[in-house]
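Hi F.,

I've been meaning to write this up properly since the lab meeting, where we talked about keeping a consistent format for the predictions we share between groups. The idea is simple: the sequence comes first, exactly as it goes in, then the structure tokens exactly as they come out, then a line or two of notes. No screenshots and no reformatting. I'm using this chain as the first example so we have something concrete to point to.
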Amino acid sequence: MQTALPVALVTGASSGIGRAAARALVDAGFAVVGTSRNAAIARPLAGVSFLDLDVASDESVHSLVEKVIERFGRIDVLVNNAGVGAVGAGEESSINQTKEVFDINVFGLMRMTNAVLPHMRAKGSGRVVNVSSVLGLIPAPFMAIYAATKHAVEGYSESVDHELREHGVRVLLVEPAFTSTSFEASSLAPDSPLPVYSAQREVSRDVLATALRTADDPDVVAKVIVAAATDSKPAPRYTAGSMAGRVSVLRRFVPSRTFDKQIRKLNQLAG
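Output, unedited:
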């Protein structure tokens, strides 16, 4: 089934930001393929074709991209949204658990990007929109592993964007702050918890839960994803929501010592 419509491929589209982005891209005139680890149980969404994908599997990634090309004939936009959260002190996650988080949040994003780039370069156009986070710009006590993945996504995306511009392809960042999703409930707990961190870990969970109660709706982020996918002169990075915008400005312009104190205050850390 070839299509004249531009085609957007959205990973992690069964819920949260991914689902909102898939819906918004349909409204913007795209034929949308949404992925889920189990597409058979994904709630139907008008205009979206759901397919199975495990971003941690080379075979699954290449099979998925081949299916999309075979069915639609093109991929114009890739939205790398699939990810997993992780909470706890950095010392409390084993290297194996850390690898698991990186395999989804970083290497999964890279697998998907590498799989679609030959098709985009061949036609001289395309957008890769990577859903990062303001936690890729700032410290995140008791979410160190998750923040590390987002810092990696930031550096990777900006670097590859420069490599690809001459081929008509852009790699862009969308940076939400806290968003009203199931992030907290689905985040990995540390697999090597230590008593020395237990009290502060619970404080940090409370801080996160409080922030999520007033978090942005996923539709706020979805609107920005569509802008990144369609702007005629895209910016390298887009903040999503007022809080994300404020954090980005503060990170750039507030003196480092003052910013450090604010991080500790917000996270209720002593000293």
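Notes:
The chain has one domain: 7-266.
Strands lie at 7-10, 31-36, 48-52, 77-80, 126-131, 169-176, 237-240.

If this format works for you, I'll send the rest the same way.

G.
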